[in-house]
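Example 3.2
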Amino acid sequence: MQRRMIGGLVLTVALVVGVCVAGCGSSSSTTAETTTAISKAEFVAKGNEVCVKGEKAQEAEINAYVEKNGLEKQKPTKAQNAEIVETILAPSIQSQINGVKALGAPSGEEQQVSSALELSQQTLEEIEANPELAFGKKDVFAAAGKQLHALGLDKCAPNS
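Structure, written as tokens:
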């Protein structure tokens, strides 16, 4: 996750996880069901790849938004923060969650993967409901990031 200064605000491009995050399904999903067994090494490699790709795309979209809206030297409004969450952060984080979920879970780690993805999904839903959380000093994806990192997904929610 890259940090970008937007008019005095440090925008943590998240999710963790994630912010980023990878793997949970739609926002109405409450469980991360897995359908296939994947080796731990493959899960880590592919999961981190999902997050890296998502983070790069997210960063490019935020940079374009900043330039388009002249925010290089000024703080975004609450309405702009909400728009950033709605049009850039939330879709990107959701895509990363969905991508990791699609991988399945390594044998014996199904519960840990499910828990990390569910927590990531819950956190995403919190920032969708209150976009200012994504721009505050508190890392809202810290708990999800900790779980993701314990699984080896250190590229998901990398600032958490």
